[in-house]
Amino acid sequence: MSEIKNITKILNSHALQKGAAVDCLFTALYPEVKKIANAQLRKMGQQQDMSPTMLVNECFIKLKKNDELNLQNRKHFYSLIARCMRFYLVDLIRQQNTLKNSGVHTVLTADGVADTDQLQVDVLTLHQALAHLESIDTDLASVVELKFFGGFSFEEMADIRSVSKSQVYQQWQMARSVLLNLIEDAKDQ
Questions:
Q1: Distance CA 180, CA 175 (A)
Q2: Fewest Cβ atoms closer than 10 Å to its Cβ: which of 5, 25, 51, 96?
């Protein structure tokens, strides 16, 4: 609970100062954000040449550069972190694929998306399916982003989104179903 008060206090005290809230939030929540980055990179596999510290720093730089960033609450902060990590990792994979010109994409295990650890999902395919899901339902896409790219549990997502755990779980079930269909459709094309 002190984390919520800290975030609220930081956002309220730095409302008029550009970038100060980002600095303070990253300082206060660095261990939590680094834990998210570490979990995300573990999903990516050992072929990644990125450390959790580097991923956190890249997200910090990206958020710091955004002059129009208006952090509203902790949900908004964690959603931005998950989104920032998603887009940075997708860009990194695209860059690596261009350099290698091999057409081989980094693959992560989608044990968070499917009921089995067996499903392998190409990160770029997942990114495209998630972009399509965003055009269908932004709330469902946000749940996927928090779960998959943020690594949050259902309890944590319920707390971040200020809804019940059962509501988050229902949204996750629906999002997972739609996402798996979108991924299957992408494979068939």
A1: 8
A2: 5
